[in-house]
Task: structure prediction
Amino acid sequence: MKTLENHMILFDGECPMCKAYTNAFVKTGMLVAGGRAAYQNGMDGVCPLIDKQRAVNEIALVNIENGEVTYGVKSIFKILANAWPVFAPLFAFNPFVWLMGKVYAFISYNRRVIIPAPVGSDSFAYQPTFKKHYRIAYLLFTWFFTGLILTSYTRLLAPAIPLGGAYREFMICGGQIIYQGIIVRIYQKRSFWSYLGNMMTISFAGSLLLLIPLILNNWFHMQPLFFILYFMAIAGLMFLEHIRRTKLLNLGWMMTITWALYRMILLGVILFL
Result:
């Protein structure tokens, strides 16, 4: 594996994902030791001509010899193509670059709701740009896959929990987006998109954890009680994570109370109607 010499990658020091994958570049020898730095520590010292806002939105790779800067997925492809030259033609193939650029942007512009970071008066002057279409795409993505997984999981709860129609879980998940969206819009309008993004990350993460018993059920046929207890444990973890994230957003207890209330009302409707 070939190391990319004389380059510095500038990552978001408040983003655990960014820390992890840039650290992997260094640990695996794709970048030299010291070939990464948090942009919060000062971009001018690395390259005075860098586009600061773009570097915050799309990870920047700086050639420290000539000052050339690449951004976003092209930065990552430059490192990978240098490490594995056999893939260089793929990383230069424009349709592939375009497609992966959209995937990268989808993650990058939603990274602060995937893994939140506290933002206060002492935070770095430049923050990721909010792009509504990427946030809407994220809400639709997490809604669809959460509903899909829950639809499969609820079959394991029968007959203790009555089965619903094919689209019940999609409607429940979508209903919570609308319900909580209305409340946060009234309660604290400025947090509308941030809150909905965080809320759906919690729902999506919870649904991914439900895949474990779904997969195990292919080999071990367990009783509905096990799946009910597992589901309750995941719901408890989601509740705690909701509290943590709303605190980071300075939303207090209002959104957590309404989030839990919605779920309890729906459970009552499913069980008794």
